[in-house]
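Lab notebook, page 48
Experiment: co-folding of the full assembly
Goal: obtain a model of how the components sit together before planning crosslinking
Operator: M.T.
Materials (sequences as entered):
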Amino acid sequence: MEQPNLTYIEKLSGNDEIFKNKFIAILKDEFPIEKEEYYQSLNASKTKETALIVHKLKHKLNILGMEKAYGLSVFYEEELNKGNTSLAPKFKSILDTIESYLNTI
Amino acid sequence: MTCIIIDDEAAARAIVAQLCTSYPELDVIEEFPNAIDAIKFLNQQTIDLVFLDIHMPGFTGFDFVQTLKNPPKIVLTTSDTNFAIEAYEYEAIVDYLVKPISPERFAKSIQKVKNSLQKQPALSASEGNATGVGEDLYINIDRRLIKLTFDEILFIEAKGDYIDVKTTKETHRVHNTLKKIKEKLPEELFLQIHRSYIINFTKIIDIEDNSVLIDKSVIPISRSNRPELMRRLNLL
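Observation: model returned without errors.
Model output:
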């Protein structure tokens, strides 16, 4: 599984450690909420709503340098808009990877 | 230059705000997680620039633009490239930034905003470009400046000291380089896929392993440019 990284955040931060720490804190706050919203929506079979949440989550994959995961989420979002949830297990692996990573930083 | 940031994602707002800190002339006076609150704010206060996310639940960025009678300059921020054409239909929209936004691309955008604000007082109502700033390109042929809209350009091919600009109607041969014309084209629509070709990727009809079909022309994709093309296409 592709691993997240802080390359983009570090580029954006430069030497601004305050911003870097603040941004990581935002990720740590926002990600679990979006993840929870995602599962609630998915379990309620609201695929269009789920697609919107995946859309928001996929930006975080980009921020964390997960290009392959981002590609999959783009496709997943499209499939959700068609009512197809078959990529949900793969997307779960991505979310789990990010969750584990955010616990380490 | 006073500005506000509208995005339902806190991380995205933080990124734009951080990018703004490199520009002392930019004064971020407020951030909004939704467009409705921003509209209420704009009814009370005039600002110069809005960084606006398109994809928000309930009320999209385009809904926001259509709601305002006299909108300020707007820079769209989005994870999708497939709204680029629609974006350029609004006069207020100056630029279109695809997330994650790089500092380099952000710098270009700020320059576009400055150029746009400088042009504004000089334009009379009749001169105003109804389809938005930066929607066209002038090419110099036999001392004549010919206007081409970005949408009519299919692709550009390098031919030694010249470039061929292939449009929906004809091909123009211009004494210039691919590198120079690339700087004039919006990244949201154009992509170099080979050392001799820049394409308008909204015009792609078909893709094979190492080539794309645009109109009736088969254009090669170099190995090094292929990942970026595939990344962009994934977004369509």
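Interpretation: Residues 121-133 of chain B have pLDDT under 50 and may be disordered.
Next step: discuss with group before ordering constructs.
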